[in-house]
């Protein structure tokens, strides 16, 4: 039988990144509905956190040929950067 006991360590993606090609359970955050912003740029909707399986890589090429460095890629092929970088799709932990 497989031993299902494991230890999880949450690491802030701004502090340290995993080794390239390492599978991770990455935390992402957002707001639902995503496009709910008032005229004063105040976000409406419910904030959420979600943990998704991804892998980290130091270099990734999109289908359109775009190169990404130090990024997380999820099963849908969405490229997410570490939190704090200029991207709408980020990983926090």
Can you tell me about this structure?
By secondary structure, the chain is mainly β. Helix content is 0%, strand content 44%. The chain has no helices and five strands. The chain has a five-stranded mixed sheet with strand order 1-2-3-4-5, with no helix packed on it. Strand 2 (46-61) and strand 3 form a beta hairpin. It is globular.
* Largest sheet entry: 5 strands, mixed
Overall number of strands: 5
Task: Determine Rg (CA atoms, Å).
Answer: 15 Å
Strand arrangement within the widest β-sheet reads 1-2-3-4-5
Helix percent band: under 10%
Q: Which structural class matches the secondary elements? A: mainly beta
Shape descriptor reads globular
Percent strand: 35-45%
Average pLDDT, all residues: 81
Provide a compact summary of the structure.
This protein is an all-beta fold and about 90 residues long. It has strands at about 20-30, 45-60, 65-75, 80, 90. It has a five-stranded mixed sheet, with no helix packed on it.
How would you summarize the topology of this molecule?
Elements: E1 22-32, E2 46-61, E3 67-74, E4 79-82, E5 90-91
Parallel strand pairs: 4-5
Antiparallel strand pairs: 1-2, 2-3, 3-4
Task: Tag the structure with descriptive keywords.
93 residues, mainly beta, 5 strands, 0% helix
